[in-house]
């Protein structure tokens, strides 16, 4: 959440919407398409509640579904807010190392 910290340090209002805020077990949610769809709905609703020209909304979730990214884009456009997608890249070896350092229930 370095992005959030930097934005807040610059005096921006920031709202964070992520899987953790929806209090879900990501392993069970992302293995069940129905639950995943419900989670995306909750994240979109959170973004809609807080989006404005004066607030940066960070939706931290695997946004691999093009339609979901487009829905968020439309919400931003409807509220005359700027929209961007930030891709986080890491080498495969680093990802494997991070995953193996987690407990089994966190994977």
CA-based gyration radius: 15 Å
- Mean pLDDT over all positions: 88
Number of strands: 2
Helix-strand topology string: HEHHEHH
Largest sheet: 2 strands, parallel
Euclidean distance between termini CA atoms: 20 Å
3D architecture notes:
There is one protein chain. This protein is mostly helical and 107 residues long. The protein has five helices and two strands, in the order αβααβαα. It has a two-stranded parallel sheet. The mean pLDDT is 88.
Layout of helices and strands:
Blueprint lengths: L1 H8 L3 E6 L7 H4 L3 H18 L4 E6 L5 H13 L13 H10 L6
Parallel strand pairs: 1-2
Helix pairs in contact: 3-4
Q: How would you describe this structure in keywords?
A:
two-stranded parallel ribbon; 5 helices; 11% strand; single chain; mainly alpha; 107 residues; 2 strands
